Amino acid sequence: MYADAESQVDRIQIEFIRALAGQHRLRIVHLLGAGPMEVRELMVALDLPQAAVSQNLAAMRATGLVEATRDGRSMRYRLADPEILAACLLMREVIVRRLSALGNLAAALGDQADRPLLPIPASDPALHPAQVTPR
Fold it and tell me: Of these four, 8, 74, 77, 100, which has the most CB atoms within 10 Å of its CB?
């Protein structure tokens, strides 16, 4: 029973992640994190045609990431849960930390660029192709 519930949660999480997999969708999350917006406002902020914005919103709505309410003739979209933005921001922080660590590693390796990482034994002709005589 527990495994079934865990599998269902895993499937839902996978659907959420897939629904967020796209630059425009992530930008929509960040925009809606500031408050509800109409499609027209999202179009302007994203510099996308209405069809593209609507298609992204439909995919996000289908998984429960965003909700829509009618406001007169237009629809206002909002995040279904504010923690969706918090989760995206947390992932962004993790990515920035990883990039920073990799940047520090690259900088450290760059400081050592003029010396070989491992000593090359002079007695091994395979590692010194200039010293190998052609057959």
Answer: 77
Q: Where are the domains of the chain?
A: 2-83
Contact 19, 60 (CB under 8 A): yes
CB 91 within 8 A of CB 26: no
pLDDT at 1: 61
β-strand partners of 78:
67
104-123 per-position pLDDT tens digit? 878 887 776 665 555 555 55
3-state secondary structure of 81: coil
Of 104, 97, 83, nearest in space to 33 by CA: 83
Mean pLDDT computed over every residue of the chain: 85
φ, ψ at 8 (rounded to 5°): -65, -45
